[in-house]
Amino acid sequence: MEIRLLKSSFDDDGSASNHQHTACFVVNGEVAFDAGSLAMAVGADRPNVRDIVLSHTHLDHIAGLPLFVDDLFSTLRSPIRVHASRAMIEALRTHIFNDVIYPNFEEIENDFGKVLQFREYEFEREFRVSGLSILPVKVNHNEPSAGFMISDASGSIALTGDTADTAAIWETASRRDDLRAIVIECAFPEQMSRLASTARHLTPLGLKAELEKLDRNDLPVYVVNIKPMFREQVVAEIDALELSNVRIFPVGGLVAV
Ligand SMILES: [Zn+2]
Questions:
Q1: Which of 5, 23, 92, 219 has a CA positioned 20 to 30 A from the CA of residue 158?
Q2: DSSP per position, 14-67
Q3: Ligand 1 mean position to 115 CA, how many Å?
């Protein structure tokens, strides 16, 4: 399985920054998990994505979605499919695709038909998209939020999305014999643990505690969704924990597991 974390910001010289402002992971070149920078990120994956699976509707996870539909509007021969919970779909209809913030792309058709379609998923019920089996699991963040068990023929990964301390995804992951890797958030440094708790995110010590719930430490763990203003500090604190299997997911990079 191949996972790419799309870039989302620029350095002063115009080159891509390693600061992650938004979240968008493209798996096997075709399925996007969240759409924070889907329209903005330049990449070979972009034209092939037609399925977007949402973890929750915070802006940093959906910012690129309306722009992505807009960009591809005239060329789409089948609709972009957004897989999300009922509450997330309602939030997008009410607050984004409402003809105020952005056009209602569910209603506007191009020459070939519909351009945007919502597909509702249920937590704890696996569904298939483009060669992937996806199990949404509730995590401890903005209600409702999902982490995912994502599987293809090569094995499974656990992707936590945004979350504070949580349980179900680790119980599910522990039961998977084919688990290949963990992709987990760590937003804030330790000195901001109170804010992390309020905003329901992890600090490095929280990350360590979460990984101990998995009951095995032989799998590669990739850290994502680090708040850009604190990236260097969070990375240094994670390094200081000396967790041998934990590494930082390179922003704009591809990880094969
Ligand atoms: Zn969030």
A1: 92
A2: SSBPS---S--EEETTTEEE--TTTTTS--TTGGG--EEE-S---HHHHTHHHH
A3: 26
Q: Tell me the average confidence (pLDDT) per consecutive run of 10 residues in the chain, 257 residues long.
A: 93 88 95 94 71 98 96 94 98 98 98 98 98 98 96 97 97 96 98 97 98 92 97 98 96 94
Two tokens, residue 26 = 């493209």
How far away, in angstroms, is 176 Cα from ligand 1 center?
A: 26
pLDDT of residue 14: 83
Domain range enclosing 36? 2-256
Q: Which residues pair with 128 in a beta bridge?
A: 133
Which residue is associated with the tokens 């351009």?
115
Total structural domains within the chain: 1
- CATH number for the domain that contains residue 206: 3.60.15.10
* Distance between Cα 99 and ligand 1 center (Å): 24
